[in-house]
C-alpha cells in the first residue's frame, strides 16, 4: 500500500528535494562534534563515565527525531501530489454492422490458421479503433442471424466476435439474407451515416426456402440509405479445409466478385479483395479512414495534494523531540 502511494507521487516543486542532501551532512557534523568534546576536569580514569545507563543511551534520540522532522518538512515543501488524468471521447458517431460469413469454407487454410480466425482478428482491431461509433454483428451462412445488436458496448461485441466459429448456423452462403438482416438492424438508427461491412469468401448458394435474394437485399439497402463495403476473402487456387476431423481440398475461386462489386457501387461503398492477412488488415484500415467519425477528446487533469502527510509527520516528530528534550531526556548544564 505504501509502495503504491509512493509510485503515484509527483512533486510540484522538485527543486526542493536536493535539500535532503543536508541531512547526512548534519548527521556527520553532529557525530564529529561529539567526538571532539574533551573533559574539562582531569581524572585518573574515565571508565566509570563510559558505562552508560538506559537514560544516557537515549540522550541523542531527540536529535535524530529533529533530523527526521527536517527531512519530512523538506518533502512537504516539495509538494507531493497524485495526478489523475481522465479523458472522454465525444463526437458524431457512425452506426456500423459487421456482416460476416461463417460458412464451412471460412475454415480454408489459405489464410493462417484459417480465414475465419484472421477475419475475427481484423474485425476486433476495427472495433477497438472506433471509440464513439455504435457497432453490431450479423453472421450468415445457410441462414442469417443477429449475434449482437447495434450498440456502444464494444467490449461485449469483441467477446462475441472472439466466440465466432463455423457451424453456428446451417451451412451454405446466403449473401442476400445476411445483407437484408444487417440493413434491418440499422432500420431504427438515427445516425447520419449507416454502414455495413460485408465479408464473405463465397457466392450465393440459394436453397429452395431462400427468403431474400441479393438483388432484393440490394434494393432494400439503397432505399434505407445504407452504405455497404464488401470484402471478398480468398487467396485463389485451392485451400485445405478441416471437416469433421478430416482434411479436404476445396476450390477458392467461387467468389461472386461481380455481385459484391455491384452491391458496393450501388450503395456508395467500395469493393475490396483480400488475398492475405496483410491485405485484409489494410482493407479494414482503409474503410476506417473512409468512414471517420468527428471525434473530440477532452482531457482533464486533477491533482490530489499529499503534502499534509509529510508535514503532519514533521510536526509530530518535532513535538516529540521537544517533549523528550525537556522531560525525561533533559540535559542539565
UniProtKB/TrEMBL annotation:
<feature type="transmembrane region" description="Helical">
    <location>
        <begin position="307"/>
        <end position="324"/>
    </location>
</feature>
<keyword id="KW-1133">Transmembrane helix</keyword>
<dbReference type="InterPro" id="IPR002035">
    <property type="entry name" value="VWF_A"/>
</dbReference>
<keyword id="KW-0812">Transmembrane</keyword>
<keyword id="KW-1003">Cell membrane</keyword>
<feature type="transmembrane region" description="Helical">
    <location>
        <begin position="57"/>
        <end position="78"/>
    </location>
</feature>
<dbReference type="InterPro" id="IPR036465">
    <property type="entry name" value="vWFA_dom_sf"/>
</dbReference>
<protein>
    <submittedName>
        <fullName>Ca-activated chloride channel family protein</fullName>
    </submittedName>
</protein>
<dbReference type="InterPro" id="IPR024163">
    <property type="entry name" value="Aerotolerance_reg_N"/>
</dbReference>
<feature type="domain" description="VWFA">
    <location>
        <begin position="95"/>
        <end position="287"/>
    </location>
</feature>
<feature type="transmembrane region" description="Helical">
    <location>
        <begin position="12"/>
        <end position="31"/>
    </location>
</feature>
<dbReference type="InterPro" id="IPR050768">
    <property type="entry name" value="UPF0353/GerABKA_families"/>
</dbReference>
<keyword id="KW-0472">Membrane</keyword>
<dbReference type="Pfam" id="PF07584">
    <property type="entry name" value="BatA"/>
</dbReference>
<dbReference type="Pfam" id="PF00092">
    <property type="entry name" value="VWA"/>
</dbReference>
